[in-house]
Amino acid sequence: xxxFDPNAKPFSHQWMNDRLAVDTLKRVxxxxxxxxxxxxxxWAMGMILAATFGVLxxxxxxxxxxxxxxxxxxxxxxxxxxMGEVGYGWLxxxxxxxxxxxxxxxxxxxxxxxxxxxxxxxxxxxIWLSGMLLFVTFSAEAFSGYMLPWGQMSYWAGMVxxxxxxxxxxxxxxxxxxxxxxxxxxxxxxxxxxxxxxxLLPLAIMGLIVLHFGTLRIPxxxxxxxxxxxxxxxxxxxxxxxxxxxxxxxxxxxxxxxDVFVLGIYxxxxxxxxxxxxxxxxxxxxxxxxxPLKTPPHIYPEWYFLWSYEILRPFPKDPGLVAFGFAQVIFxxxxxxxxxxxxxxxxxxxxxxxxxxxxxxxxIVLTIMGKVPPxxxxxxxxxxxAWVFILxxxxxxxxTKMEKPIRGQK
Amino acid sequence: MSDRRDFFGKxxxxxxxxxxxxxxxxxxxxxxxxxxxxxxGFTTIDLSQAEENVLYTEMWRGKPIFVLKVPKKDQKAYEDxxxxxxxxxxxxxxxxxxxxxxxxxxxxxxQYKFICACHGGQFNAAGEVLKSPPPSPLVIPPFKVDGKKVxxxxxxxxxxxxxxxxxxx
Lengths: 410, 169
Prior knowledge:
The structure holds two protein chains of two kinds. By secondary structure, chain A is mostly helical. Chain A contains 16 helices and two strands. The longest helix of chain A has 31 residues, at 187-217. Chain A is globular, with a radius of gyration of 24 Å. Chain B is of the alpha+beta class. Chain B folds into two domains: 2-32; 39-164, Rieske [2Fe-2S] iron-sulphur domain (Rieske Iron-sulfur Protein, 3-layer Sandwich).
């Protein structure tokens, strides 16, 4: 039987505690959630992502008030009403567009930090998997948002991506028409992608963020040496006043103060881009209204999809789709394809060190080749890079199986 | 006691499952193309004024349609079995979307070629693939020849013949 102190003043500390256990919540979620000391600024990327999602949500709410999801009106509601008439409408749009682009850069840094330090193994598999689900939903969110201004790139990207669902020679035209609600992208298409972008996908993202944080709570974050820390014992040291000897610090206020510092630097760069270099997130082709009878001379996705697009491009239709599907799901399998028990930075793991850097460089090459026109030497480089990507993942179980155990690790 | 609870659990599960199935079906149907979209029917194209080697782009069910009076100079294309004879002239009529991922190829009259800018696919003046990634020729929509006109959306005897020969796509 819960005890409610009749003498506690409404909304006083004790009154709140009796009803909401605020002290326990605060302890479990922040002041006694332990973070290793042995980390660097790359461990701040998660908080930067959460903050950027907040920026996207808030700027999106303001855009939503004037945006009209109608094929006749959408283009002008963005490029005329929001950009020209609404007070500070340009600010929300540029914040939204730049954040949508930058969030993927941070996601990739966050992912590659995890791969480099082996933060997807030894109890951290679900962190990786929930993170990959977030990557997929963010991708869908970015794609659906890209449809909304209903410019030439919106329309033709919508055409090309929905056509992927015909699954090559299986020729599922019915499925493609069902997804579009029409023979070609039209009103039904715009309406449903608007719904996905502003309701269903943001809800899914928020749920997945909670899950992602939840998966982190028991295994805790990794550290720069992949050391297995006894968090209970180290926490006791901290609480006993042995702050120097303890290997951990509390999330709040100690870790957060550093996190907020990195966040501050990030937002200086972010707002510099918003105010002075927003154009990198605004494709000029998308400032032409959608025209179903005229394909732009060169169709390419935003930079963050280029690597997987380039894996699709050099192959004939069916093998291209298979390679593309492979690229979409293979990162999910990382915790299971890495057969080595070592949790350590890649540079201490022998062949895996080479694997990591080749993968990183290969994905940058794929990204660049996805942007240039498909001709001559670019096709050759793109084809080689696509094969390298596939072969790296095929080789991963073998090279990690051969990896020698690092001393001091089980 | 636990038998009763099991029974109630199963009954609840069964009804909830039925409801979920019904909701899924309703959701699926909500995303189907609307009847008004489906009924957007037939396009008639008058070919009597068409000039040789000039590409005309018409629209049928929201898709671009290529109409080309194939030039005799491009002998290979001119002899192609996929061409449609209307009033003694040979026409190439197809959906103007690349069979790779649906971009619209551009026609280069001096080369008698369609070139797709998206992924570099090429077709000749009869829509046959000259260079991959497109896996198949440009698709011929259902059509019916009516004097000097062609009606798209209706399968006439000429279309049925092409289809039986496996030449429409």
